[in-house]
Amino acid sequence: EAQLLESGGGLVQPGGSLRLSCAASGFTFSSSDMTWVRQSPGKGLEWVSSISGSGGSTYYRDSVKGRFTISRDNPKNTLYLHMTSLRAEDTALYYCAKQVGELEFVHWGQGTLVTVSS
Amino acid sequence: DIQMTQSPSSLSASVGDRVTFTCRASQSIRTYLNWYQQKAGRAPKLLIYAASTLQSGVPSRFSGSGSGTDFTLTVSSLQPEDFATYYCQQTYTSPYTFGRGTKLEIK
Hints:
Chain A is mainly β. Chain A contains no helices and eleven strands. In chain A, the strands form two sheets. In chain A, strands 2, 4, 5, 6, 9, 10 and 11 form a seven-stranded mixed β-sheet that branches. The radius of gyration of chain A is 13 Å and the shape is globular. Chain B has 107 residues and is mostly beta strands. Chain B has no helices and ten strands. Chain B is globular.
């Protein structure tokens, strides 16, 4: 059974950085496109970024382009989201998810909370 | 960005009822529409993809329909475990936007 476990969230000041990790198991990670989705009371669910199985293709929502970087280490079965220049509006629960087909998010982790505040 | 509007924002129903959730896109998304269920404190769970295809393992009382801009999710006979919040999401074009959800509560 596919399992995803996020970590790395926490409290950070505006302008600061964090790196989120998502450890995957129970499926062939290197063949799977992966996604980060965030959820906040103010904005609801938001797709953030996606990456192809090889890592060769990456996609971002406009509000995080140039600030966030998605990457993966296939031998370690781990997905990352490196977040810089963090803003209050980035405060959310961040989920990693396994993608199939036409962007169906079929498996999700439990989420890691990022709070951006001074 | 494509706006996804769900109605109503909340709904009260009883076990055994038939309920329908509505989702409208701000422009045509053909059938690039997914439905998710989220229970309190849990991650979303995929129910329906491509507007009408039931995800493996999801009970057949769930069904989806629609194309273009108007979509519905129907639960034919509510079970106690179905009380949750339901979200639609378009995957026609980036950013892949979600609706704000419909919260289904017990009457």
